[in-house]
Amino acid sequence: MKKKGKANKNTSLVQEFALTQERYVNPFTDFGFKKLFGSEMSKDLLISFLNEILPDQKIATLTYKKTEHLGAGDLDRKVIYDLYCENNRGEKFIVELQKAKQTFFKDRSLFYSTFPIQEQGQQGDWDYELKAVYTVAILDFCFEDEHAKDVKVMVKLMETEKKTVFYEKLTFLYLQMPNFNKKEEELISMEDKWLYLLKNLHKLTQRPAKLQEKVFEKTFKLAEIAKFTPEERSAYNDSLKYYRDLKNSLDTSFAEGKAEGKIEEKRDVIKNGYENGLPIPVLAKLTQLSEKEVAQILKELGY
């Protein structure tokens, strides 16, 4: 029995090592993200990050606010932010980490932004003046639209004729991290350095020469896994496993959904083409399917 217990313990240690053999925490895990940005100890790191990525921001102080918000009624949907903060001017900051593709992610981020707006409502006489709301989304994927190749996508309400900003107090910033590909020697600005750190931290074995500022010295100290308490190590292992499993399953699901959409497109091409007199060999070339597959689809469509 003793040998079996020892074997189980050794197996557990091997599994733990295999899971977290990196030196530094992965910022795209829930634990890692909140370790770096979500506590009083690391608040100065979040301030530095937001000041660099948001234009004209000079945040002096931040206050963490509750991350869970309920709608006005009992049946309204509940939202939980990764981080929700307020600066010294009363402006609101939602900071979200999105690990995998979501079909209606833009809708979700717009919906999330309505809660900091609604909570500013006042009873009685009120002139409707609002404090600005900023939504910052750090994405581990890219949009599939005209912004697919951008690193930063900044969105405000726009007047369509003059192409000018109509309302300054609502800002959405999407950081598409897969598109940030600068190497260490190419880093110039502090924004570059923060984005490089977020994307590469868990791959590094030491602090790069380009990241010698005090704020990064503190970041690397907080991120070193070997200095975690046993409880922190266990929590991080769980978070890392969840991140990997979730990302793999959601990315696979999204890819399958995309493939199904392409099949439906091809079925439409075959249907419309056949009804307009195109022969099966031509339809096969148009859809990059075999003639046998085209014939089968036509049969399924009742032709």
TrEMBL record:
Pfam families: PDDEXK_2 (PF12784). This is PD-(D/E)XK nuclease family transposase. It comes from Thermoflexibacter ruber.
